[in-house]
Amino acid sequence: MRNIGIIAWKEFRQYFGSPIAYFLAIVIFLFLGIVFALDLVQTMSNTYSAQVLEGTVVLGPLLTLLLFATPAITMRLLAEENGAGTLELLLTAPVRDAELVIGKWCGAALFASVVLALTWIYPIFLQSITKPNGIDQGPLVSSYIVLFLLVGALLAVGVGISSLFSNATAAFFASLVVSLGLWVSGLATSTLSYMGSMGGASLWGTVLQYMDFTSHFYNTAYAGRLDLTDIVYYVSIIALSLFFATRVIESKRWR
Amino acid sequence: MIQVTNLTKWYGLRKAIDGLNFHAKKGEIVGFLGPNGAGKTTTMRILTAYMPPSEGRAIVAGYDVVEESLEVRRRVGYLPETVPLYSDMTVLDYLDFMAAMRHLPNADQCVDEAIQRVNLEDRVESYIGNLSKGMRQRVGLAQAVLHKPEVLILDEPTIGLDPAQVVEIRAFIRELGADHTVLLSTHILSEAQQICNRVLIINKGHIVAEDRPENLQARLAGAERITVELAGDTDGAETTIAGVKGVLTVEPMGNGIFEIEITPGKEIRPAIVRALTRAGQDVVEVHSQGVDLEQIFLELTRSDDKSKGKRASRRQKE
Question: Do B190 and B130 fall within a single domain?
Answer without folding.
Answer: yes
